[in-house]
């Protein structure tokens, strides 16, 4: 059974040289019928921006566990976290402090009807091009570009995606 309450507070947050460590995912699936790639974006809590699920990496979890937790809490999806797309240093709009963001692709296995932030966020499946247009964070757009490049590279195999 999964907990339907999001973690809150900053007591367990990881920091490195004063930067808060955050973890995010690009949830994806292949649409039935035509096999077209879709990614899942979510609204911010205040509903003014679209982004990929992300949040604080806590002391009691691995980076992959944090990525899975954030996808569950914010987007209501579970799946397989694949190899890291990279890390980015960015400045928080709300607090004006620097963060280090780690991004992963996640192949979605299940989309849940109930999840902790269901009443706070909207979730929308869309084509990569649409997601790139609506995503508000430059670093998430870069992660999306890395993800697409990885998928379209003729030299990579499926095994290269897994941790």
UniProtKB/TrEMBL annotation:
Q: Which GO terms describe its cellular component?
A: cytoplasm; nucleus
Q: Which cofactor does it need?
A: Mn(2+); Mg(2+)
Q: Which residues form a coiled coil?
A: none
> Does the keyword field hold Isomerase?
no
Does the entry feature the keyword Lyase, yes or no? no
Q: Which PANTHER family match?
A: DIPHOSPHOINOSITOL POLYPHOSPHATE PHOSPHOHYDROLASE (PTHR12629), NUDIX HYDROLASE 17, MITOCHONDRIAL (PTHR12629:SF62)
Recorded protein name is: Nudix hydrolase domain-containing protein
Species name? Mikania micrantha
């Amino acid at each position: 059974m999964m907990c339907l309450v999001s973690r809150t507070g900053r007591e367990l947050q990881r920091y490195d040289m004063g930067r808060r460590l955050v973890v995010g995912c690009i949830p994806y699936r292949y649409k039935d019928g035509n096999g077209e790639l879709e990614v899942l974006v979510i609204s911010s809590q205040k509903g003014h921006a679209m982004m990929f699920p992300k949040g604080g990496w806590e002391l009691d979890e691995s980076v992959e566990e944090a990525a899975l937790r954030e996808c569950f809490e914010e987007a209501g999806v579970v799946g397989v976290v694949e190899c890291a797309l990279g890390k980015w240093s960015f400045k928080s709009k709300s607090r004006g402090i620097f963060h280090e963001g780690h991004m992963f692709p996640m192949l979605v296995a299940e989309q849940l009807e109930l999840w902790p932030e269901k009443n706070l966020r909207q979730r929308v499946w869309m084509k990569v091009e649409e997601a790139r247009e609506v995503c508000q964070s430059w670093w998430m757009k870069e992660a999306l570009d890395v993800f697409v490049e990885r998928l379209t590279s003729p030299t990579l195999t499926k095994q290269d995606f897994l941790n």
